[in-house]
Specification:
rod-shaped
Length: 358
């Protein structure tokens, strides 16, 4: 499925049905009085956050959504039937904004959250609505109200606890495949990852977190170079960034430290809040470095970067050091953001049986 994280749609709620002017006509009832019913309400256009979706591709080709109008009122005191509502399923993390003003109207942050995009028009009043002691035979009726109409801009920012940051071919896709259930495309050429991948990392029974792998960044990404600038916003909702550095690049002329500094610079230019997020250094592909040279290499990189945060030495390919990294990430999230970690249903495979047999 093609990943789409932006879309523009038109939504139109249904108009209300018109009220009816009618009088009761029945044998031996000469003065039956008014019996015109009200019109039905127009259908609403609603949006609901669906955890099973991760792209806005459904809105790329179908861009107009129009609810049915309400039914007109009828005689014999019959009110019109309301128009059917339209329910649009959107991924969790979708931002809904007015396309003309850019004002953010809603953010779908919780699975199952439902909001109204366009309200249907109320039905008009029938003449029975206007009868009174002084006006026994009103002929007045009102038309239905017009439903709301909007042009909306949809933007998806994926919801993940951990974001992977790094140059193309730093090993981000290999790492997310090693520690989670995600299976991204992996190859030995730059920009293998063309869209964000989400993976659930299961640390232990009922303990997990979500990690996001976005396309690699290059210098100038915040101005539009490469692919990563389109997806930097997907890192804005993460709680910790793992900065992967390839310590054994294919080209000997490439300096991993210079590349790492360039990425940090792009983060700061794109968004100061993103730059200020907790960031851990993950030195990858250590399996390509002789064992007796690793310690000196790691110390040299950390010293040149002047990095003060946590440092992890891993090999995503052989999974060396990955378990320690995963455990450390979960412990950090559990300590700092415990209320934000997903509440999971107990996995029956790991539930201890009741010794009483109940």
């Amino acid at each position: 499925m093609k990943f789409v994280d932006e879309a523009t749609i038109d939504v139109a709620a249904g108009d209300g049905g018109n009220g009816c002017a009618s009088f009761r006509h029945e044998k031996y009832k000469e003065f039956g009085g008014p019996d015109g019913g009200d019109g039905g309400r127009g259908g609403h256009v609603l949006a609901v956050a669906d955890a099973s979706l991760n792209t806005l591709v459904d809105f790329r080709f179908t861009r107009r959504f129009e609810a049915r109008r309400g039914e007109h009122g009828k005689g014999s005191d019959m009110f019109g039937i309301k128009g059917d509502d339209i329910l649009l399923k959107m991924p969790v993390g979708t931002i809904i904004a007015d396309a003309e003003t850019g004002e953010v109207l809603h953010e779908l942050l919780e699975p199952g959250e439902q909001i109204t995009l366009a309200k249907g028009g109320d039905g008009g009043f029938g003449n029975m609505h206007f009868k009174s002691s002084t006006n026994r035979s009103p002929r007045k009726k009102t038309p239905g109200w017009v439903g709301e109409r909007h042009t909306l801009q949809l933007e998806l920012k994926v919801l993940a606890d951990v974001g992977l940051l790094g140059m193309p071919n730093a090993g981000k896709s290999t790492l997310i495949a090693a520690v989670s259930n995600a299976r991204p495309k992996i190859a030995d050429y730059p920009f293998t990852t063309l869209h964000p991948n989400l993976g659930v990392v299961r640390v232990a029974p009922e303990k997990s977190f979500v990690v996001a792998d976005v396309p690699g960044l290059i210098e100038g990404a915040s101005e539009g170079a490469g692919l990563g600038h389109q997806f930097l916003r997907h890192l804005q909702r993460t709680r910790v960034l793992l900065h992967l550095v390839d310590v054994a690049p294919f080209d000997d002329s490439v300096d991993p430290v210079a590349q790492a500094k360039a990425i940090v610079k792009e983060l700061k230019k794109f968004d100061q809040k993103l730059y200020d997020k907790p960031r851990w250094l993950v030195l990858n592909k250590l399996d390509m470095v002789p064992a007796d040279e690793r310690e000196a290499l790691v110390k040299g990189i950390v010293k040149r970067l002047k990095f003060k945060g946590p440092v992890f030495e891993i090999s995503a390919l052989t999974r060396e050091g990955c378990e320690r990294l995963v455990q450390s990430v979960y412990e950090y999230l559990a300590k700092e953001f415990r209320s934000h970690l997903p509440e999971e249903n107990p996995d029956p495979r790991f539930v201890e049986p009741d010794p009483r047999g109940i």
